[in-house]
Amino acid sequence: MSWQQRLDQALAARHEKAQFRQRRINQQGDARTLRIEGRNYLNFSANDYLGLSQHPRIIRAWQQGAARYGVGAGGSGHITGYHPAHAEFEQRLASWLGYPRALLFISGFAANQAIIAAMMAKNDVIYADKLSHASLLEAAALSPATLRRFAHNQPDSLGRLFARPHQGEALVVTEGIFSMDGDQAPLAALQAVSRQHSGWLLVDDAHGVGVIGEEGRGSCWQQKVMPELLVVTFGKAFGVSGAAVLCQNDTADYLLQFARHLIYSTAMPPAQACALDAALTCIQQGDDLREQLQSAIRLFRQGARERGLNIAASETAIQPLIVGDEVRTLKLAEMLRQQGCWVTAIRPPTVPPGTARLRITLSAAHQPEDIERLLEVVHDAMGQ
């Protein structure tokens, strides 16, 4: 098979299964609205849970950081790219979340890949929740360690896997809030099983930090759990981008020596670290925003139940409407867009076969009339 035949075959298969992905240019928008191809929509697809991506304080901090440091880091953090803005934000973030150290990464995907690639060796075992993010499962599959997947949010399933003999070290991998289902992991129970077998716990709390827990400290803080490795990302509630790994001092020193994604990548622009520092302040002072988000979630779920919609058992900003068939899911998403509501169709391989869905995400920026409009449009589309 030639290269061209390989590409043609793979793309044809995606088209045939209604799994072909395309990008659309978002000409202008925020957590509440967006403009695509000259038309305005209510935005129910963003992860900007607190609406901070357009916050004047954060924008101003980035501008001031750029005026001071320029628009780029200038190199890897191991060479010349580690600036005072990075160090100050790392220290403040670590203190806020109760850890000795924080290390900044350019993205959550990179952070997850870096941890697993650096930490795991032959004869080690990774125990991952079956619905863990692609960045975690891919890194686990590519590592020299053995990957064993436990049933979603089932500590007993994890315990049974631990009962099978293994050599080397063990790492348990899960998310705080799952990105496609919006449900929360039983972190305390998972940590208890992990520690019983001398394993470490890695929690990716991309969708929890900033949104839940005291001052928005996230899933682990809310459940009184301190995993050995905590990943937080800044493209959701923080409204910016990037990620950090929270850990103990010796773990941070180890990652600085062996995490290739960190060592061989240009560091995050220091101006971005300035913006993240401002975003952290907004999150710490954001109880009103979190209450607005919770109010939007309650309004949506109540309205969905009244209309008999098949929503998942999620109490978070992620509200999946399970459809099943991929072609119908795409058709429903298009029908919603025709009525001015931008909702994304999520299909395999992102989610398991037979669980294609409309992934509805809510924000503190949404108004009650936005939610009512969405519910009206979804109800009408599902009836057709």
Account of the 3D structure:
The strands form three sheets. Strands 4-10-9-8-7-5-6 form a seven-stranded mixed beta sheet, with helices on both faces. It has a four-stranded mixed beta sheet with strand order 1-2-3-12. Strand 2 (33-36) and strand 3 form a beta hairpin. The chain folds into two domains: 27-50 and 287-382, Aspartate Aminotransferase, domain 1; 56-284, 3-Layer(aba) Sandwich (Aspartate Aminotransferase, domain 2). The protein is of the alpha/beta class and 384 residues long. The protein has helices at 3-16, 56-69, 84-97, 108-119, 134-142, 155-163, 187-196, 219-222, 249-258, 260-263, 270-284, 287-306, 326-338, 368-382; strands at residues 26-29, 33-36, 39-43, 101-105, 125-129, 146-150, 170-175, 200-204, 229-233, 243-247, 318-324, 341-342, 344-346, 356-361. The mean pLDDT is 96. The N and C termini lie far apart (44 Å). The chain has 14 helices and 14 strands. The radius of gyration is 21 Å and the shape is globular.
Task: Give me some keywords for this one.
globular, alpha/beta, Aspartate Aminotransferase, domain 1, 14 strands, 384 residues, Aspartate Aminotransferase, domain 2, 2 domains, 7-stranded mixed β-sheet
Strands across the major sheet, in which order? 4-10-9-8-7-5-6
Please, what is the average pLDDT?
96
Total discrete domains = 2
- Give the overall shape, derived from the CA principal axes: globular
CATH topology of the largest domain: Aspartate Aminotransferase, domain 2
Provide a compact summary of the structure.
With 384 residues, the protein is α/β, with parallel strands linked by helices. 42% of the residues lie in helices and 17% in strands.
